[in-house]
Amino acid sequence: MDACTPENVEQLQQALNELFQQHSATSQHNYQQSLLLMDADLSGMPCGKKAERATPGYFHYEAAQGRQLGRVSAAQYGEVVVDQLYPGNRQLNTTLPELITAAEQTLNLDESKRRRTVIRVDAGGGSINDVNWLLKRGYQFHGMDYSPKRAAKFAPYVREWVKDPRHPERQLGWVAVKGVGYVREVQRLMMKRQLKNGQVKYNMLLTTLSPEQVMQLLGRPVEPATDAPKVAVAYAELYDLRGGAIEIEIKESKQGLGITKRNKKRFAAQQMVMLLGTLAHNVVMWAKRWLKAEAPKLANYGVPRMVRDVLQVSGFVEMEASGRIKRIVINKAAALGRQCVKALRVMLGAEHIPVSLGET
After folding, report:
1. Can you name the CATH fold of 6-257?
2. What's this model's pTM, rounded to 2 decimal places?
3. Residue 5's CB: how many other CB atoms inside 10 A?
């Protein structure tokens, strides 16, 4: 890794793009049938002070230095579309166009596909410039406005507030005046929260989605939008689910794959480590998809449990002299051994490779 150059990083990235296009569920997404929902975010990657491009930044705790991992993921499939490495002082408002451009290359997103793709971000990607860049590219947008102060200025234009049944301390209301400064029409949903100190905090959700599109992304029946409070809650819920998507996904990469445990001083070397972590995450997710048809128990497994409980199942592979796999034997004492055998038999049936249980 220490000998790797930026050229090697580009080569590995190209290889990962080809693998992603061949094996990922995201690359096979049916855009005519449904929207593709992609999340973008940054996450701190602490490292030594002498590491190349390590700077003070936001790492969830004080006195830390490191780099930032920029990630774009496909929410419906749990797959990492793009990982990029940045200096520690970079934020989403300075990296979002670069991340989305890289995702376009990985997924070969043309104009028609971009119109059927939703970009969901937190307030870090909600500046007017970032939102307009996405809108000009044709994307749908669902994310927080960058400025809480700007949100507070629009609060008086909310005609009716409704309580959010999922968050009793939060109220929701549509801004009744049209937004200015955006190249396409953007709806604004105000969120008001009473803090413990008595102050009121405002955040403003920006969206280009119709109620029917929101319901479809939530996996609910698409009905005429006649219940305004119910619709407002659905828009807020779709944003809230971001925390259970990319934020949990990055956390699982850190816990299950240890992507913060391997630090290199040279920036190119760390990029190579990062990309191998990207590949590992996606291979785990693809393995779950391949296996869960015959082992439905795995459907709710995250990356840590897949690594701990599934990829640790022992056994052996017997090879012929030509290099062809002769047979696979799984340890019958493994808790998930029987489910894995059943799934592997289906997967490898066309190859006529016997899979069985045995002592190892």
Report:
1. Transposase Inhibitor Protein From Tn5; Chain A, domain 1 (3.90.350)
2. 0.93
3. 12
